[in-house]
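ok so I'm stuck.
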Amino acid sequence: MSPLALAVSGRGLVDPAEPVIRADDEGLLRGRAAFETLRVYGGRPFRLEAHLERLAASSRSIGLPAVDLEELEELVSLVLDRAGTGDTALRLVWTGGPAGGPPAGLALLSEIPTWIEELRPRGARAVSLLGIRAAVPWLLPGVKSTSYAVNMAAEAEAKRRGVEEAIFVDADDIVLEGTVTNIWWRKEETLYTPSLELGILAGVTRATLIELAPSSGYRVDEDAYPLDDVLGADEAFTSSSIREIMPLVEIDGRRLVRGPAADRLQEALRELAATL
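replied:
not stuck anymore, here's the structure
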């Protein structure tokens, strides 16, 4: 994503090409930092408060100093002045800094990758890969940290296999989540998605779809489901802040029908965003 604007704690707006992280920052050395990524619709960030709350929760789980929410909101305001009227991507980072601090926040505004809208009409292909069920606190269930090497390695493996998405399943073939997405599937008028009790990320877009589903004609079930349930569904799709609703048309070489729920929910999401 091409950077458009960057604001940093204690400095305000800086050139996005300028280095802003110290070499001994533990976010760099050990991945001890939390982040959020959200979509900005026409200059308005979607559900910023929910993302800030999750950032604060992730930071507590990692053991970082408390997030300065007021400061981060100021940084967001600075970069949004450069957003214009189009859709953009906003990344927020909170790091504890070097050992002993001080902590620091960053707000980075970037362009939305063009491939997302190019892929949506066709739908994405995916491969299932072994993941870990984060069932204990030291596995950081539901935490969005910059320790993202496993997710990026899984994404690279998906691309090596010629598809666009990777879906994590545990050793018992229970579906967890995508590398940067939550996964959904439909059977008749019911939408299914893995439960947060599996240690997956509590996606803000996921929560939004749970709210929007009834008015779109669907009920939602959350539980632990085997991959075979997804493969036998009427349709499947993923959700995330930047990609929004992305239909899935293939998993592990098995074709899936591109159904109506993904398009209906995508439209409902956009309509909701337009009201904010």
